[in-house]
Design brief:
Blueprint (H helix, E strand, L loop, with lengths): L10 E4 L4 H13 L3 E5 L7 E2 L2 E4 L2 H8 L3 E4 L3 H13 L4 E4 L6 H11 L5 E3 L5 E4 L3 E4 L8 E8 L2 H13 L4 E6 L10 H9 L6 E7 L4 H11 L6 E6 L23 H10 L3 E2 L6 H14 L1
Parallel strand pairs: 1-2, 1-5, 2-4, 5-6, 6-7, 10-11, 10-12, 12-13, 13-14
Antiparallel strand pairs: 3-4, 8-9, 8-11
Length: about 300
């Protein structure tokens, strides 16, 4: 089982013929992802990487039955690209673009209401279901198939967690990089819920960071399930000073509940297995799963 993307996903690349789109589309194709084409306005009818290029997402949906889109479009045009995909009926929209103006994302987020599309990102590494589909910029070799799901605001910590889990003899069901911007399509709680309901996921690693309340909302949801599956949590930015942006645009401590310490305390109270160092993620997953299996 998997969530969001799998071997049957029919993926198109928006910004297909640009340098970023070309490079990462090639990587996805080599991984085995079913990339069925791409979109670059004005270049419809051409071939690129032996795939058809379309002028619009609508044309790609009509001609090659695309249902997943990954966006490598410059920040000024990326929100329009998101809305175009939603309008064309794309089911999963993954936006890699960083630096989209907040005002643009406010429009895009509102536009998505009532649509069947789910947005992942922006400013994210994408989604990978190991052995089936890599729709993103993550190094595919780090991920091996298994039954541990990952939800993360951080791209690099997603790779680090997966590497530890794989080296510990386990594997990944689906890893979801939700993005680090203030306004994103799928917050932590919704991504965790997808994995909580997935029959192919036995445990979840939830990686958050300072700023906002996504992790605390997710923790309350996890508690409400009766801790149906074990969740291992880590919050980045434990030494960050108040008011200082650390890395992601959304990682700014606004109030006392935005700090790493406050989030970690809430997570612990909700039954999440909190680690204080990213180096302990893999070992903690192994420990927790062994306790669950022996009980």
């Amino acid at each position: 089982m998997a969530v969001l993307v799998n071997k049957n996903s029919r993926v198109i690349v928006q910004g297909f013929t640009g340098s970023e789109g070309t490079f990462h589309a090639q990587q996805m194709i080599e991984y085995g992802t079913n990339v069925v084409g791409g979109v670059t306005p004005g270049k419809g009818g051409q071939k690129h990487l032996e795939r058809p290029v379309f002028n619009t997402v609508y044309d790609a949906v009509k001609d090659v039955q695309a249902n997943v889109s990954i966006i490598f479009v410059p920040p000024a045009f990326a929100a329009d690209a998101i809305m175009e995909s939603a309008d064309a009926g794309i089911e999963v929209i993954i936006c890699i673009t960083e630096g989209i103006p907040v005002k643009d994302m406010m429009y895009a987020k509102e536009y998505l209401k009532g649509k069947k599309s789910r947005l992942i990102g922006p400013n994210c590494p994408g989604v990978i279901t190991p052995g089936e589909a890599k729709v993103g910029i993550m190094p595919g070799f780090v991920f091996k198939p298994g039954r541990v799901g990952i939800v993360s605001k951080s791209g690099t910590l997603t790779y680090e967690a997966s590497d530890q889990i794989v080296k510990a003899g386990l594997g990944i069901s689906t890893a979801i990089g939700i993005g680090g911007d203030p306004i994103i399509g799928t917050p932590t709680r919704e991504a965790v819920e997808l994995l909580m309901e997935d029959e192919g996921t036995d445990a979840i690693v939830m990686i958050g960071e300072i700023g906002g309340n996504y992790e605390t909302i997710a923790a309350e949801y996890i508690k409400s399930t009766g801790n149906k599956k074990p969740v291992i949590g880590f919050i980045a930015g434990q030494t960050a000073p108040k008011g200082r942006r650390m890395g992601h645009a959304g990682a700014i401590i606004g109030g006392k509940d935005d700090t790493a310490q406050a989030k970690m305390e809430i997570m612990s109270k909700c039954g999440i297995h909190v680690v204080h160092s990213p180096a302990d993620i893999g070992a903690t997953v192994v420990k927790v799963l062994s306790q669950v299996q022996s009980s």
